[in-house]
Amino acid sequence: MADEVLSRFEEVGLINDSAFADAWVESRHHGRGLARRALARELRTKGVDSALIDEAVAQLDSEQEEATARELVARKLRSTRGLDRDKRLRRLAGMLARKGYPEGMALRVVRQALEGEDTEGLEDEGY
């Protein structure tokens, strides 16, 4: 009986794991800044099929993911001012890692942001 009901729901479009996965990726990436790895992990815990997960996270390309990482770092950069550079690097890279960003990308994005901030500081001082 339950299988019949679920089959009927799928037929009329009330149950659509693919649409759910696509909407989840869109929402969580733009809303929380989560990377592909974290999104895939969340969808797995929700019981979505691996093939559907792969399709859904494929919506995000590396450039999009890196742009989001840059935005996240830019938002958090100010709150780390006053800390030494290594501590800032660890905190910001750790924040990206918790959101599922690859280590290499996280470190590169944070280093570039810190270097950009250092350059701005020199320009402000007239160098």
Notes on the protein architecture:
The protein has two domains: 1-60, no CATH class; 61-127, no CATH class. The longest helix is centred in the C-terminal third of the chain and has 22 residues, at 103-124. α2 packs across α4 (50-57), α5 (62-77) crosses α7 (103-124) and α6 crosses α7 (103-124). The protein has helices at 2-11, 17-32, 36-45, 50-57, 62-77, 85-98, 103-124. The model has no long low-confidence stretch (mean pLDDT 88). It has seven helices and no strands. It is mainly alpha-helical and 127 residues long.
Feature tags:
single chain; 127 residues; 2 domains; 7 helices; Regulatory_RecX; RecX_HTH_2nd; cytoplasm; Regulatory protein RecX
Instruction: Determine the structural class based on helices, strands and strand pairing.
Output: mainly alpha
Mind telling me the C-alpha Rg?
20 Å
Average pLDDT over all residues: 88
Number of strands: 0
Distance between the termini: 76 Å
Pfam families: RecX_HTH2, RecX_HTH3
Keywords: Cytoplasm
InterPro entries: RecX_HTH_2nd (IPR053924), RecX_HTH_3rd (IPR053925), Regulatory_RecX (IPR003783), WH-like_DNA-bd_sf (IPR036388)
Protein name: Regulatory protein RecX
Indicate the topology.
Layout: H1 2-11, H2 17-32, H3 36-45, H4 50-57, H5 62-77, H6 85-98, H7 103-124
Helix pairs in contact: 2-4, 3-4, 5-7, 6-7
Main location: cytoplasm
Keywords: Cytoplasm
Pfam family, one: RecX_HTH2
Quick structural gist:
The chain is mainly α and 127 residues long. The chain has helices at residues 2-11, 17-32, 36-45, 50-57, 62-77, 85-98, 103-124. This is Regulatory protein RecX.
